[in-house]
UniProtKB/TrEMBL annotation:
SUPFAM superfamilies: Acid phosphatase/Vanadium-dependent haloperoxidase (SSF48317). The keyword Transmembrane helix applies. This is AcidPPc domain-containing protein. It comes from Puccinia triticina (isolate 1-1 / race 1 (BBBD)). GO terms for biological process: mannosyl diphosphorylinositol ceramide metabolic process; sphingolipid biosynthetic process. PANTHER family: INOSITOL PHOSPHORYLCERAMIDE SYNTHASE CATALYTIC SUBUNIT AUR1, PTHR31310.
Length: 443
């Protein structure tokens, strides 16, 4: 074995030992050193840190105690009144049997009381509220619906006035099976998959509060969009192609538009059947497809800015696909994107605004196992320790420091990690001078 090969092997072994020391895995290193060395330290670090943040308790008394200790305020808790009101009305109009309705209420209440499940269900409550409102829309009494006018020509007119032409009509004049597939992938596949992928990435790499922020922004954006679609129903481009400017009514079924070509390619009726039974047929404005893509691009750009070009490329491809498949006008996309931007900045707290990226490699910063955070974070610690845990700066009297003036020198930390590795590589256990640093005080 050459000297360089020996040096590389020792370097890998040293990195593995260092990672194990961070997570307290020294006792099992003899059995798993080879497998751990093949796993990215950043990924393993982030996953274990995210797992450590979970509450595995099953005791409802813990959640009840938190509820009793909660300080209620109109500004912070009005959202719960909104969600309860919307969900209650949706269940009232919903055509499900009353036993099923009661069962859903009991199951959801139980999920909120159990700490293990409440940490997921509570942040997702705005999303669940939107989902139940969307699917219960078909049960809204016709006596109420008949009073709401369906706008057929307002969107193409606005598009022509604002942009000088009917952009969506221009984009649909030439079709091709390859373009159909290219439009279908973001519109019919990624649109439903990416929200879960983004949520997982934010949970693992985004730090405390990121998923809660995402759930609020996504849920209330869609909830607002559906409310607009109910009280301001507008016909999509496929209606203009099929019926012209004929007045619409709620007895008309939905159409798949350009997605009918996807059904033809795959010899199926999936999209045709789905859109024919859609709860909201005249929901062109605003485009929640555009809202989803814009919000996902905003979140990923905020937490992982290194790849922002790819996020926004996907968003613009989806914008094009919604018009190419005759489901939205350009003005719908502008409204959906504006709704996403408003929702993002409305729920962006000061902590999340200044929160640096947890995964340094994804963020495009320097490579290190423990990344320091050198920007002020109100109410949070300015760094995350090498073991992946979060903590707060506390004074001797128990008060918390907002850490606005705290600066953590991550380059200094990298130097100390390198020196420690060199010390272990040389086997010089007596060189304690190199270890006498702030590194030993990390959690």
């Amino acid at each position: 074995m050459s000297y360089r090969e020996h040096e590389n092997k020792m370097s890998i072994h040293s990195s593995t030992r260092r990672l194990a020391r961070c997570f307290g895995l020294n006792q099992c290193m003899s059995r798993s050193s080879n497998s751990i060395s093949r796993v990215s330290p950043h990924l393993l670090n982030a996953i274990l840190a995210a797992t450590q943040r979970l509450d595995f308790s099953l005791s409802p008394s813990k959640s009840i105690a938190k509820l009793k200790a909660h300080r209620w305020s109109l500004k912070g808790d009005a959202q719960y009144f909104i969600m309860i009101t919307v969900s209650g009305l949706s269940l009232w109009f919903c055509g499900l049997h009353w036993l099923i309705k009661i069962g859903l209420i009991i199951l959801y209440t139980t999920a909120l009381l159990v700490p293990l499940t409440s940490q997921f269900f509570l942040p997702a409550s705005p999303i669940f509220t939107w989902v139940i409102l969307f699917f219960s829309n078909r049960y809204i009494p016709m006596s109420f619906r008949s009073k709401i006018h369906i706008w057929v020509s307002i969107l193409p007119t606005l598009e022509s006035v604002l942009y000088g032409a009917n952009i969506s009509d221009i984009l649909t004049r030439y079709t091709h099976p390859l373009l159909d597939i290219l439009a279908w992938l973001p519109y019919g596949v990624l649109h439903f998959v990416l929200p879960f992928v983004v949520a997982i990435f934010l949970f693992v790499f985004g730090g405390p509060g990121a998923v809660k922020f995402y759930g609020k922004a996504l849920g209330y954006m869609n909830l607002s969009g559906v409310v607009i679609q109910i009280f301001f129903p507008c016909a999509p481009p496929w209606y203009e192609l099929s019926h012209g400017i004929t007045p619409a009514n709620y007895d008309m079924p939905g159409e798949a538009g350009g997605l009918a070509r996807i059904d033809a390619i795959f010899h199926s009726q999936g999209y045709t059947t789905t859109f024919r039974n859609s709860p909201i047929v005249f929901g062109a404005f605003p485009s929640l497809h555009a809202g989803f893509a814009t919000l996902e691009a905003l979140f990923l750009s905020h937490y992982f800015p290194r790849w922002r070009v790819f996020y926004w490329t996907y968003a613009f491809i989806l914008y094009w696909s919604t018009m190419y498949l005759t489901h939205h006008y350009l003005v719908d996309l502008v409204a959906g994107g504006a709704l996403a931007v408003a929702s993002f900045y409305l729920f962006l707290t000061e902590d999340q605004r200044h929160l640096p990226m947890l995964n340094a490699s994804i963020a495009g910063e320097e490579d290190s196992i423990a990344k320091g955070y050198h920007s002020g974070i109100r109410g949070m610690l300015g760094h995350r320790g090498a073991n992946g845990t979060w903590s707060r700066i506390r004074h001797n009297d128990g008060t918390e420091d907002p850490a606005e003036d705290f600066e953590f020198d991550h380059l200094f930390l990298d130097d100390q990690l390198r020196l420690r590795d060199e010390e272990e590589l040389l086997g010089d256990r007596s060189a304690t001078g190199l270890r006498k640093t702030s590194l030993d005080t990390l959690p």
